[in-house]
Amino acid sequence: MLRTRVRDKGNLVAEQGGGVRRRQESLGQMNVGVHRAVADLTGATGMALVRAIVKGQRDVRQLAKWRDPRCHKSEEDIAAQLTGHWREDHLFSLGQALKMYEAIQERIQDYERAILEKLREMEREECGGKEPPELKNKEKAQAIRKRGEEPLRQALYRVRGEDLTAGSMPSEWRPCRRWSARTAPT
């Protein structure tokens, strides 16, 4: 069961990339350079800009105000990239791509909850409630927390009794996939 959930979640993550490409295509057809204005279209600023455009905001100065404080570009730089034409058909496509992305994101979160629930059922008695040791690499620990993978790290530790993230932990939860393929009952 765990293996299936991890595999299905991975498939959804791959599908999510198609939604990002569709949004970039719609924006590109309108000559709106959100992808040039921000480093990550799925980041806080990129998502805020796309949502504002879909909701009807066309003033580039107002759009630039959606800039997240952590964004490296200034409001002026962002506004300069957002000048374009706002064709109704492309705006519709952008809205549909955003809806699909958000629906897939919701399904991914459902899978993540189901994976954590299954891991809770598989906890070792001697590891129940224990926290994994602190990671020596502070940057890695921060990256795991930023990606929201700390609950998985803790759950895997309680199942295996060892920290599977001591190596590498890409966004598709490779330790969980590696572990489930070796030892998880189906």
Written overview of the protein:
The longest helix has 34 residues. The chain folds into 2 domains: 97 residues, no CATH class; 62 residues, no CATH class. It is 64% helix and 0% strand. The protein is mainly α and 186 residues long. The chain is elongated, with a radius of gyration of 20 Å. α1 runs antiparallel to α6. It is built from 9 helices and no strands.
In short:
It is built from 9 helices and no strands. It is an all-alpha fold. The protein has 2 domains: 14-110, no CATH class; 122-183, no CATH class.
Tell me, what's the shape? elongated
Assembly status: single chain
Mean pLDDT across residues: 83
> Which percent bin holds the helix content?
55-70%
Number of strands: 0
Main traits of this protein?
186 residues, 2 domains, disordered C terminus
List the helices and strands and how they pair.
Blueprint: H1 2-29, H2 34-37, H3 44-54, H4 60-64, H5 75-81, H6 88-121, H7 138-146, H8 150-160, H9 174-183
Helix pairs in contact: 1-6, 1-9, 3-6
